[in-house]
Amino acid sequence: MTELDVVEDVIRRRRSNLRMDMSRDVDPDLVERLCRLVAWAPNHKATSPWRITMITGDARARLGEAAAGGAMRAGVTDEPTLRKLRTKYLRAPVMVLIGAAADPDPVLHAENRDAASAGVQNLLLAATAAGLASYWSTGAAASDPEVKGLADLGEGDQLVGIVYLGWPAGDVESPGRDELVVRRLTE
Question: Which fold has domain 20-56+94-166?
Fold first, then answer.
């Protein structure tokens, strides 16, 4: 098996999976090891824009309260929706918030977000290789100032991913992929 075969296998096995075994803790050292791989993503101009916060234990409920507070500030009053926001981050033992530092240059600002997004993919693939289930989320919570504050992000910084991590509670079917057509230009 070549290295490409191994990488291809991990990429094809990766699934968004929120079916996590809440009775099994995830070693924080493993999570930190996975998070360090974020910094190996491509990063034009070497700005090192990654900002990472690991949230576990009762702090996950604080994240939910912050998300619900943001929804209420945006005008959401539906109690079932707010209840779901308050509890959604309790579905995984670990939440990892990945942010991108702001840059006054609009091109570098966009490239920082791109680098952080590529870093999220590194984390997701490494989590799969480690046997963990993962799920990449964003949504309205990602732009909420209180949620961003929990991640120690500044006003112009961008929260690129809220990643759920845990040991899988079962297999998830592959949704399959449409066949990708690669155009070839030779002249």
Answer: NADH Oxidase (3.40.109)
